[in-house]
Design brief:
By secondary structure, the chain is mainly alpha-helical. It is built from 8 helices and 4 strands, in the order H-H-H-E-H-E-E-E-H-H-H-H. 53% of the residues lie in helices and 5% in strands. The longest helix is centred in the C-terminal third of the chain and has 28 residues. The radius of gyration is 18 Å and the shape is globular.
């Protein structure tokens, strides 16, 4: 809904970033409870009489109803059904446990109310800001452990950065500029470029950890390159809001860290 942006000036954006501790998944000082509280409060301001308790505004079904009534944009939805297959749900639980074990600082980020829905066809996954806290997964996402781990990091990263954009959009109101992602996908908003860079930064961080295997490091290197493309595309763009610029700065810093990490691995291997 990001409509009634609370944090629009550079000073307010800096205050928000100080309170949050940085970008989710990228800053170990990030404060998830603070962002959740601010998100719930923002939703209650949009629809004060919808629910009696603040916590209910973080329920995915109830939040979707708030969005349906109050969001400036509409969605036709995504062809899907509730994900109820116990085998697939167990795979999600096991993949999340592996991520938590390898990146314990991320554990709170995977312990939020989320709806999983299953999509037909060949799509791997998606989320949409207009259907909050809902992750759509296709059967291909479950093909192997590494892909499912990446997919979950990808979509949870979108959920968390969307929480931020509910407080203050990442692009200025009325922005119509369209961009192409490093993958070649065109027609993306500036916000979409930051969302893409953010998931790539998070997944690259996961796959470039020192204890990961060679295939994971290779995937991390690919994702770091993708992140670099997003950082370059959005650099110094006048349609970034103050919060959008702070997110971009965090993405650029992570890209720099990844570059040094990759260079170090290549040097030691030669």
């Amino acid at each position: 809904m990001a409509a009634g942006s609370l944090m629009t000036s550079p000073a307010h954006a800096a205050q928000l970033w100080q309170a949050l501790g940085g970008t989710p998944f990228l800053a170990d000082a990030f404060q998830p409870r603070t962002l959740l509280s601010l998100t719930a409060a923002s939703r209650r301001r949009a629809d004060p009489s919808a629910y009696p308790t603040l916590a209910e505004y973080l329920d995915p079904v109830k939040a979707a109803e708030v969005f349906r009534k109050n969001a400036r944009s509409r969605t036709e939805g995504i062809d899907s059904v509730p994900l109820e297959d116990m085998v697939l749900l167990r795979q999600i639980t096991e993949a999340t446990a592996r991520i938590d074990d390898r990146m314990p600082q991320w554990a709170p980020l995977f312990r939020i109310p989320i709806r999983y829905r299953h999509m037909p066809g060949s799509r791997i996954s998606c989320t949409t800001a207009l259907i909050p806290q809902t992750i759509f997964l296709g059967t291909p996402a479950f093909a192997h452990d590494r892909l499912l781990e990446e997919t979950l990091i990808h979509e949870y990263a979108h959920v968390w950065l969307t929480f931020v954009s509910e407080l203050c959009d990442l692009q200025v109101a009325g922005s119509l500029t369209q961009f192409a992602l490093p993958s070649g996908t065109s027609g993306k908003s500036l916000r979409g470029v930051l969302l893409a860079g953010h998931f790539a930064a998070a997944a690259a961080r996961y796959f470039l950890r020192p204890d990961a295997d060679a295939n994971s490091h290779q995937r991390g290197t690919e994702l770091s390159g993708y992140l670099g493309g997003c950082v370059t595309t959005a650099a110094d763009h006048p349609e970034l809001t103050p919060v959008g610029r702070l997110v971009h700065a965090d993405l650029a810093a992570v890209r720099e860290l990844h570059a040094h990490s990759i260079l170090g691995k290549e040097t030691s291997a030669s």
